[in-house]
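Form 7-S
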Amino acid sequence: MKRSDFDYELPQELIAQVPAGERTASRLLHLDGGTGAFSDRRFREIAELVAPGDVMVFNDTRVIKARLVGRKKSGGRVEVMVERVLGHDEIRAQVGVNHPPRQGSALVLADAIEATVLERSGEFYRLRLEGCSDVFALLERHGSVPLPLYIARAAEESDAERYQTVYAREPGAVAAPTAGLHFDEAMLAGLANRGVVIAYLTLHVGAGTFQPVRVQDLAQHRMHSEWYQVPQATVDAINGAWGKGGRVLAVGTTTLRALESAAAGGDLKPGYGETRLFILPGYRFRIVERLLTNFHLPRSTLLMLVSAFGGMDNIRRAYRHAVESRYRFFSYGDAMLIERADN
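Output:
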């Protein structure tokens, strides 16, 4: 397959720059991957589309304030985007600077932190934050919310709350699992009261999620790595739902990738690890039967994933409809509920 197979035209004004006034106020496009039929709904209606006994799995990762601005000690502005926390005083990060810093050189971040460049691997640097005993606390004090580049404004105080799910609890992501941004506490409680099983896992979304696919031949693309953990309670919830005729709904592509990675051996198993799972049309899904997701960038690995899940032609038609109907796209935009195509 080719990168160009996953292109589409998107007017710039449809890229959501701010979240909806209320979390649950977004629109919802419901696509049946089996028949290709789709319908326009409101997100608040999702409870009508989930049956008692179904299990909804959420990614409880918490977005850290991963963006730091500073300077090289030798002079020159730098911007550091944390990709992953490696320990109490080390991070892996992208470093935006005119002249790449050398191993052993020093950066001064937020006028408060001295960072030493330990090594470089491709586009990422390993940095040691001198005198630091808690990277997460340091980032909370001195960092800012890492809004995606397609949001053409600086992060505001309100983004610290809205670019975070209400159930976020495990710090480590540098991008939000955006399908979950549509839920508030009242909706989660309503789903549980309806008999829907709520389960959680963790996948720390890395900066690689925003990296473009640079090769035309997708067989040559190397997927970025992300850490995930699927607990025993979630495996039990899924097996229990299946035993009673329920279905598995993954809230977000990150949740889907974690579940499918945990079932790589055939059966879903609890555990943790790194996943580089790259899902293209033709992939055979083992666990997830329904997917809640936002609208994704052209030529992105996430658009490739939803095309595999809902069917390429179905997704093309649904996206054309979303553009014509003025849906809002990307992180702060509207949502899709996709019923899996036969595979």
